[in-house]
Each structure stands twice: as C-alpha cells, then as structure tokens.
Design a protein that fits this description.
This protein has 1146 residues and is of the alpha+beta class. Helices cover 43% and strands 11% of the residues. The chain has 48 helices and 24 strands. A seven-stranded mixed sheet has the order 15-16-18-17-19-21-20. A hairpin with a 2-residue loop joins strand 5 and strand 6 (613-617). The model is unreliable at 1-6, 295-322, 368-437, 454-492, 1032-1048 and 1082-1146 (pLDDT under 50). The structure holds zinc ion (ZN).
C-alpha cells in the first residue's frame, strides 16, 4: 500500500477498501492503519473520518464480518473497538447503525459471547454507543437487550471488572429512553439494582470498583425519572439504603459517590403536601365589583403519572434567562411613539390639588414666623379638599364613633393599667407583678394589654371598602390632629412611663405618634397589636455586619437532616404550635411561641418538628395562593444558649442571597429595653434549597424552597422578632411623615402631605411635596418657585421590598434637612414623592401583590381605577404634570432586588435596547439624548453602595407595563428609572463583603438626591461646583470601584444539587480508556485477579489527560511488517500535522 494520489485522500482509499469485502489479512491491515491514524491525532481526526463516511464503512464491515457463519474474532474485535471509538463521537451513529442493520448483529454477537469477557465487553461498548439514539436504544430494549445485559452484572467480584463495567455502562445508556425505563421498572429491576448496589458497596472494601458503584447509582438515577420508578425505589427501601451507604461513603471520603447519592435521595424523597387546609391566603378581601374572592388556584385534577415523569425539567428561572434577549422590545414604534393617553383630558384636572405650591399664596411669609409656623404648615386644606372630605361621610362618621369609644376605653385603661398587668401576671404566678420600670420582655407578649393600637378592634365592614370613590378624601392633617388630642389622655399609661425611663431616642421616630398612626391603619384581619420594634423604633447597630461565611457542604448536611426526618421518626414531634387561622390554639409550655398578627406580619403556621426545630409556613399574598417569600413574626418562650433551627418551607424563589452571605434580621425586646434597639443580622447554618414539599391542594407543579437558619437567642424568656429584611410598616411611614412635617421650618421648606387616593381597603396613599419656600412673596420669587422642574419619586409598590422604604426614608429626611445641598435641591426642584404605592400590601404582610392579587408594577399601561387606584392616580398625576408643561425631569421608582448585590438603576434607552437585541433596525439616524446616564454615573462616584456596572437601560417586553417603562414612553421622561437595592450587601466599593443595614440604605436615599444636582439646568453653573465639593466625596470610593463587565444574577449556588438526567459516570474519556486497556490485555483468555490493576488504571485516568502510550494503537502485536513501512511513512506526515493534501489537519 502506498500513499494515495492527490485526487482522493488516503483515508478515503482506506475506507473504501474496508467496505470492499477483501481477505482477512488486508482487512486487518486496513483496520490497523486506521487505528494508528486515529490514535495518534486529536478528536478532529475522528471527526474528519466521520465526515468522510467512516462510521458507515465500519458498520458495513461489521455486518459483513459478523454475519458470516464463522466470524473471525480478530477482525471483529478490532472492528468493534474502532466502532466504539468513532461512534462515540458520531452523533448520528445510532441511526446509521440501524440503517446498516448493525444493531441486532451486535446484540446477536453479544448473546453468543456472554461467557467470553473480552468479546462481550467490545459488543457492550458498541451497544452503549448505539444507544445514544432513542429509537436504537428502544430497538435493543425490544429485543431483550436489557435482560441480556442486566444478567451480565453479577454480585461483587474482582473478576472481569472490565466487562462488568461495560455491561453497566451499556445498561445505563439504554435507560435513557422512557420505554426502556418503563420496561425495567415493570420487571422489578429497581429492587435488583438496589441489592446490587448494596452488595458492591459493602464488599468493595478496597474501593477498586468505584466506577461500577457510580454507574449503578446512575442506573438508579435514570429509573427514578419515572413516577413508578420512584415508587419502586421507595417501597424497596431505597431511601434508607442510600442514606446509610452515603454515610459510610462520607466517612471514607468517597466524595464521588456522595453527590450522586444525595441527588438521588432528594429526587426520591416522597413529596409532602404543606400542612394547610388551603393554599389560598389566610387573608381574603372582597374586591369591589366582584362577587366574593376569586381563588387563583387551578384545581384541574391533572396529575397523571406520565406527566409528572418530567417534573424535573421545568425550572422557572431558566426560562427567564434563556428568553432574555428575545424579551427585548425591538418594535421601533413601541419604543418611540407615545400611545394615546389612557383617559380623557378632563379627568386630569382633579390632580391640580396635588400641586399646592402652584396656587399657594404664602401669606404666612408676611406673618411673624415662630408662633404660627406649625399651624400654617398644616392649614393647607383647600375648599376643594373640604368638599372632598365631606363626600366621604362613612369614614368621618366611623371616626366619630371610634373616638367616643376610644375615649371611654382609654380612661379605663389608664386607670386600670395596673390591674391589667396583674391580670396578665396571673399566668406567671411565680413572678411578682412587674413595676413599669422593671418590665420584662415577656410582658410584651401579652399583646392586648400593652401593645394594643387602640381599644377598638378595627375589622373592616362593607361601607369602608370601595363604595367611596377611591381616594381624594382630602388632606391628611385634619384627621391626625384629632388623633393627637386623644393621645393626650393616654399619658399616664405604663408604656408611657416605660418610654420615659427606657425610651430609645430614635431620630425621626416618636412611639406615641406611631401608635396613633397605627390605630388608623386598616388591615384585613383588623390588627390591634403593635409589633414592638415598629412601636419602639430601631437604631442601626454600631459597627458593620459582614456577610455570613457559608459553611462547607451545609446544603448537603441540611438535606441529610431532612431525610432523617423521613427515616427516623423517633424524635419527630410534628406538632402545630401556631396557626394564624386558629387563635385558640395553645402551644405547649415547652415550645417556642409564635405570633404574627400585626402589621406587615407574615407567618401562617409553625410546626414543631423536633425539640429545637420548627417548620414555618408563610401566608400567601392576600386573595392569592402564591408569592410567599417575605416573613416577619414574633417568637418568645425561648431558652438561652440553645440553637433553634427554623425552616421556612414554602419559599418560592428559586435562589436567594441567603446562599451568598445574607442573614435574616432579629430584634430583641430585652436588648431594646437595655438600650440597644437594633435590628441585627442573625442566624448561622443558613441555606436556601429546593425541598420536597408541594402545595396542599394546588395541582400545579409548584416547587418550594426551604430557607433554613439557626438562631441561638441571647436571653431566656425574651421576646424577639425575626424578619426577611428590616421591616418598615405603613404606620411607620405615616408617623414618619408627621415627624418630618413637624421638623421643617416652613419659612425654608414647603412641605405638604396630601392624599393621592384611598387604597382598596380604605387606607390613604400619601403624596408629599417638598420644595423651598420662596424667599418672599415677590413676583420674582413666586415665579421662580412655579417654574422649578419636577422630580417624581415613588416606592414600595412591592410590599416585600422593605429596603425600598428605608432608601425612601433617607431621601425624605435628606430633602427636609438643613444640609446646604438639600437646600439647593429644594430651590432647584419641586419633589413629588409617593413613598408607598401599595399600602394595603405592606400592611397585610404580602410579598408581591396588592389585595387584587395583581403585581401593581405590571398595571401601569392601563391601570384600573377601582382595582389599582394608587397606580391609576399616580399615573393620572403624571399625566397632569405633563399637561401643564411640567413633565418631570426625573422619575424613579424605588425597589429591592432579591438576587443581586449592590444598588443599581434600570433605565430606558432605545439605542441600547436595539443594539443589545441585535436588531436590524438602523440606529444611525436615531437621535437619543445620552442624559439618561448622567445620574447613574454620578451615583457611581458618590454612592458607595451603588454599582454602575449593574445598571442597564434595556426596554423589555415583559416590563412594558412597569412604572419605569410607561413613564418613559408615555410621559416622555428621559430619566425614568427603577432603583434596585440589595437585600444583602455589596461586592464592590467600601462596603464590599458587608451586609447593608438601614444606615446604608438611608444613605443611598440621600445620595440619590445629591446625584440630582448633576441634572440641574440653569442652576448648574451656580451650584454644581461648590455643592458637589460639599458632598462628602470620598476619593477612596472612586478607587474602589471595580469596572468589570456587566454582572448577571448570582451564579447557581456553589453547592447546588442539580436534578439533571445526565450521569457523570458516562464520560467519553472513560470509554476510550476502557477500550484501550481492554485491548492491551495480551491474552484475552487469561482471567486473573484484575482488581488492583483496574483500580490503578482508574486512578490514572480519573479526569487526567491520557498517557500517549495508552492512546496508541490497539493491537500492536498484530501489525504485520508489510504495513509497518507504510505506517512509518504516514506517521511522518502526521507528525508534520498534515496528512494527504491537507485533508487531515490537527
Ligand atoms: Zn420590586
């Protein structure tokens, strides 16, 4: 044989020689040359050979040789090995094998050689390779291939490990199809596989057969893809067996077996329904115009076993990221043209009342300021507002009624304070009656006597709900003055004396004002108890709080503990100790006590699992069965120095910052009474992972996640509060606005709190105006005031995003402050702030939605005036500003982001959206003001928590109904943003590695205001230079900023356990090394103790590059001298990385 002429490559000549049934010797020679060629090069050579019909040539040679009456096994073996090597890299090999009729030939060869280890192994590898095609695998299964192969897998032995491995690998490959899995499960092989695994596990003490054990796990993994397979696995004791074997593997450091075992256990652990009677929220609210609450549960009884086979496949988050680019809006009309307004112009006039700065005459500037300041600032109710107020008579009559009720009750309570305390302490007869100053935390647990908002429980009645036109009740101040009057008679209660002696002096917080505000807050359940932290106030703790280090393998450890719950029920208590819907439930004296019946509270049920472990179930959003994530509850009756494990078992998000250093927050009443009123980050052993719970009734395949954390309380008998994030209630906002209003000097600051509208439940949605009072009533000054550009800020549309409220608190306090930057901002702009767009959601502890079970930040396109009043009127107000030529210069909606670190902005840019989407639209002629980047750029310089690199300006279709996009597109606001603040902390800048506290969140609110200086227009020259320098610009911050590329959401958790069907046991290099080592056995008939050698080889090839010697030709002893010449000639060319006219290039 000589090198082929240029017209056809040497390879093609070899392949055609192979197909032209020649004599044995020339076939052998051809095969040897091919083997030599393929062994020397990289995979590219094999792929080249495949492209030249290599697979077909080998298959046809196999059929020719295999079908002969007395096959030549020397040729056959070589053929099979080459076929395994080549076919393994040929995606079409299964189909090609069927077309060539090679599938059953191979199976037949196997049948005739089951006692012949080497031949059997060669057939098995080829079968494994063929099984990459579903129809081929099914064909083999239908021809008893599964049974033949399964019987080649014996109990533990050290003999023929190669063949056994080949059999298990082939078996596992066949199990990639549903039909084969079904057949195997029907035949009871699940039990056999388990027994096999147990046998190999217990007898393979030298760990020489790890690969076999791993592939057995892989087979189990595949058969349990079906419901029947999982059932068989459980009924055959698979969970206990796997659990026990895994514990041994752990102790012996056999990591490679632990992970697949845990994966299998998690998959097979039986689904447990949440211990609830209904998935629907415990809170329902009848919506106006709708008969009764509309359950959103899809009760279609559709849970056939066939369908649930694939339940691992659906992953909501994946879909989200995959479709991201397709989600970008590329329709230029939708990006650039404003749609028609969603309402007639006449409806906009009503919002003129929300611009009192335009009509106010500032008479008070002429009066002597000091004495009249407070009354003047609150006397803003116009005639129009008086009219509006009288229109909502049901409310005012209710108010009168309550006032008379409360005054009588209040007198009782002030005189009977002591007896109430005594009555309470009867439950603790061993204790003395605590005097006010010695009040213990647990006394606060008697909520009704101490922390009640008002003696009258405020449940809602129909008249308050929707019959008054939404909103526009008028000015807030009128109501609150009355409340304060009532407050005066309250002065001698015990809580007052306690405040006097222990009061926390939290800036901008007055407990009594808080209580007064809370008494007016309307909740679905009629909350009458205050949570202590909200009442008492919170100060950021001194010092920084670093992110919590993640314990190695914490998820695995928690999963094991959960599996133990299933296996070992001896220490399982499983007792409900708290039920939001059953107030009569008495918790056992030994257990923790839970409570969540207060504003923003969210805990539906607590189940004591073990002595110091509790499952917590969160309440779905009102009128809904979904969106559980936010929690806030009280816990008491604890023992100090005991680690309590809490498992929030019905979280819905697929990943969480809890896996990346975030901790929940805790507030201790005792610590507060000792002068440390702090929400602090707390908890160890924190982990967030997919669990085995499923909805109580819901037939949809919802997946739940567990947030687990362990808390060791510092004090016995304390009362503590635990929350997802720093709570910020609606009442806190109301009280805060009141404090701010009192704090400003009206000659400097024009501050107005008005009502945008009423919420569905009848709570007012405040809108605040802040600007500088004019220096005089001169026309020039008033003209300047009335021509200031507007800045509109909104927040907390998503109730679970309490971080947004803390940022807003920082914004409000800064804008009301005497800081010179604040002063010039007030002189430059009129601020219109709607701090809480979703009061009802916040009050009732929902996570995402309003009472209409809608995400309000998806309602902006066409908000319903009745069902989404706050959005309807916020948008109406923006339209109004538009109509009077005062389109806001900046709009920003404050949010929290649960899966990212830092604080960042989303904006809107046509050009960036089109570029990112790869749209064909020519953007050259498109003009776009790049000013939307000014604020993010400034923030990157001045705000330490801010990350410019996390910002983007893309307009997504799925976000087309959000505030940011609608305000940008419909109102033409260039700088329209969503501000996202992390729940966790920062991974850049001076806060890197720290969790954010309320101090940092408030600072962000302040910095956002400061950044607005960068968009002042005519004032720029006057103010910018001097003021930017007065902003405490730490240059270190600049240097700390990392400018790496755009970061996406956190990567999957380091420890994430996938439910993938891919089995790591079946890797390509393993197959190659198996083939090579099988062939290098010089005498195929010699059966010895292969154990040690195989183990050595396995260790050698484990994930390593193969040694050149291993990759060399398969049958060195069979190469005849005649072919060696040719080979060396060819090899020469090969080494030059070139073979036959450049056809083979490596
Ligand atoms: Zn949000």
């Amino acid at each position: 044989m000589t090198a082929p002429p240029t017209s056809s490559s040497g390879l093609e000549v070899l392949l055609s020689a192979l197909q032209n049934d020649g004599d044995v010797e020339s076939t052998l020679n051809t095969l040897n040359i091919l083997d030599e060629l393929l062994s020397a090069g990289t995979d590219r050579r094999i792929h080249y050979m495949i492209s030249k019909g290599g697979s077909e040539a080998l298959l046809s040679a196999l059929v020719n040789t295999g079908c002969s009456f007395c096959p030549n096994y020397t040729v056959l073996l070589l053929l099979l090995h080459l076929l395994a090597k080549v076919g393994h890299r040929d995606r079409g090999i299964g189909r090609k094998a069927q077309d060539a009729g090679a599938v059953l030939v191979t199976l037949n060869l196997l049948k005739h050689n089951i006692t012949h280890a080497k031949r059997a192994a060669a057939c098995l590898w080829v079968i494994q390779v063929f099984s990459s095609s579903v129809s081929t695998a099914n064909l083999i299964g239908a021809n008893h291939g599964l049974d033949i192969i399964f019987h080649l897998i014996p109990q533990y032995t050290t003999k023929h490990l190669h063949t056994i491995r080949a059999a298990i690998n082939a078996f596992a490959a066949l199990l990639s199809t549903k039909a084969n899995v079904r057949s195997v499960v029907c035949k009871g092989y699940v039990s056999s596989l388990l027994r096999l695994y147990e046998d190999w596990h217990s007898k393979d003490t030298q760990h020489v057969a790890i690969a076999i054990r791993l592939t057995l796990l892989c087979c189990l993994q595949k058969v349990t893809h079906s419901t029947a397979g999982r059932q068989a696995f459980i009924s055959q004791g698979g969970i206990r067996l796997l659990y026990q074997t895994t514990q041994t593997c752990l102790s012996k450091g056999l990591e490679s077996l632990v992970e697949p075992s845990v994966q299998l256990l998690r998959k097979c652990l039986p689904k447990t329904r949440l211990p609830l009677t209904s998935d629907q929220s415990a809170y329902t609210f009848p919506l106006p115009g709708r008969p009764g609450a509309v359950p959103d549960v899809d009760l279609a009884p559709d849970d056939s076993s066939e369908e649930s086979d694939d339940d691992e496949a659906e992953e909501n988050e994946e879909a989200e990221s995959r479709d991201y680019d397709e989600d970008l809006e590329t329709d230029l009309n939708k990006l650039r043209l404003r749609p028609d307004p969603d309402r007639p112009k006449e409806l906009l006039l009503q919002y003129s009342r929300l611009c009192p700065e335009l009509s106010h005459d500032f008479e008070e500037l002429d009066l002597s300021s000091a004495s009249s300041s407070s009354s003047s600032s609150s006397s803003s109710s116009s005639d129009e507002e008086a009219v509006l107020l009288s229109r909502v008579s049901p409310c005012s009559s209710r108010r009168d009624r309550r006032r008379s009720d409360s005054s009588s009750n209040l007198s009782t309570s002030s005189s009977g304070c002591h007896s109430e305390i005594e009555g309470h302490s009867e439950r603790h007869t061993e204790e003395h009656t605590p005097a006010a100053a010695q009040l213990k935390p647990r006394d606060f647990h008697s909520h009704s006597s101490i922390l009640s908002t008002s003696p009258v429980s405020r449940t809602m009645t129909g008249e308050q709900r929707g019959d008054a036109p939404p909103g526009l009740r008028g000015d807030e101040q009128v109501d609150e003055e009355e409340e304060e009057g009532a407050e005066e008679s309250h002065h001698c209660t015990m809580i007052d004396r306690l405040l006097e002696s222990h009061g926390a002096c939290v800036p901008h917080h007055e407990p009594k004002l808080y209580r007064a505000a809370a008494a007016r807050t309307r909740s679905i359940p009629g909350f009458s108890i205050l949570a202590f932290p909200d009442f008492w106030g919170h100060l950021p703790p001194p010092g920084h709080e670093p992110m919590a280090p993640r314990k190695p393998n914490i998820q695995r450890q928690k999963v094991f503990e959960d599996i133990q719950r299933f296996l070992n029920t001896d220490d399982i208590i499983n007792q409900v100790v708290f039920d939001l819907e059953d107030s009569s439930l008495q918790s056992p004296s030994e257990s923790l006590r839970f409570f969540s019946n207060f504003e923003c509270g969210n805990l539906r049920k607590a189940v004591q699992v073990r002595r110091y472990e509790y499952d917590l179930i969160l309440n779905a959003d009102a009128n809904s069965s979904q969106h559980t994530q936010w929690f806030y509850f009280e816990v008491s009756n604890m023992v100090t120095d005991v680690p309590y494990r809490f498992n929030v078992i019905n979280c819905e998000k697929s990943n969480s910052q809890f896996n990346y250093g975030m901790q929940p927050v805790l507030y201790s009443v005792r610590e507060a009474l000792e002068g440390r009123p702090h929400w602090v980050r707390t908890g160890t052993e924190i982990c967030y992972f997919r669990n085995h719970f499923c909805p109580a009734q819901d037939r949809r395949r919802t997946t739940f996640y567990t947030l687990t954390f362990t808390v060791t309380f510092r004090h016995n008998e304390d009362v503590c509060y635990l929350a997802y994030h720093y709570p910020y209630t609606y009442s806190a906002l109301k009280a805060h606005l009141k404090v701010l209003q009192k704090s400003v000097d009206p000659s400097q600051v024009f501050f107005r709190q008005q009502i945008l509208c009423g919420s569905l439940a009848g709570n007012s949605c405040p809108v605040v105006t802040i600007t500088a009072s004019p220096t005089s009533r001169a026309w020039k000054d008033l003209h300047q005031l009335r021509n200031r550009p507007y800045i509109v800020l909104t927040g907390r549309v998503h109730p679970g995003e309490s971080n947004a409220s803390w940022v807003m608190k920082g914004t409000l306090e800064f804008l009301c402050s005497s800081d010179p930057v604040a002063q010039s901002l007030r002189e430059a702009f009129v601020f219109k702030i709607i701090p809480m767009l979703n009061p009802d959601g916040v009050i009732n502890g929902t996570n995402r939605c309003d009472l209409n079970s809608e995400d309000l930040n998806r309602q902006w396109c066409k908000p319903d005036p009745v069902l989404s009043p706050t959005i309807y009127h916020a948008k109406g107000f923006l339209y109004y500003l538009n109509s009077i030529g005062q389109t806001p210069l900046v709009f920003c909606d404050y949010h929290g982001h649960s899966r990212k670190k830092n604080v960042f902005l989303y904006g809107c840019s046509v050009k960036e959206t089109l570029w990112q989407s790869g749209s064909a639209v020519n953007t050259v002629g498109l003009k776009e003001d790049p000013g939307y980047r000014t604020i993010p750029k400034t923030l990157d310089r001045i705000a330490p928590a801010f990350s410019f690199n996390s910002c983007n300006y893309l307009v997504e279709k799925s976000r087309s109904a959000t505030a940011r996009v609608v305000v940008w597109r419909e109102m033409g606001v260039l700088r329209s943003y969503t501000m996202e603040s992390t729940y966790n902390g920062c991974d850049q800048g001076i806060y890197k590695g720290l969790q954010t506290g309320t101090r940092e969140l408030q600072e962000m609110g302040m910095k956002f205001c400061q950044s607005l200086l960068s968009v002042t227009k005519d004032m720029k020259a006057v103010y910018s230079r001097s003021l930017i320098s007065s902003i405490n610009l730490d240059h270190n911050i600049l240097d700390h900023k990392s400018h790496n590329c755009f970061e996406d959401d956190e990567p999957p958790c380091v420890e994430e356990i996938e439910y993938s069907s891919d089995c790591p046991a079946l890797k390509g290099c393993d197959l190659d090394s198996d083939i090579n080592s099988n062939m290098s056995d010089s005498d195929e008939e010699e059966y010895g103790d292969e154990g040690h050698r195989v183990a050595k080889q396995q260790r050698g090839s484990m994930g390593q590059l193969q040694q050149p010697s291993l990759k060399s030709h398969l049958l060195p002893h069979l190469i005849r001298p005649a072919s060696t010449d040719t080979l060396s000639e060819m090899k020469h060319t090969c080494n030059g990385r070139n073979f036959s006219n450049g056809h083979l290039t490596s």
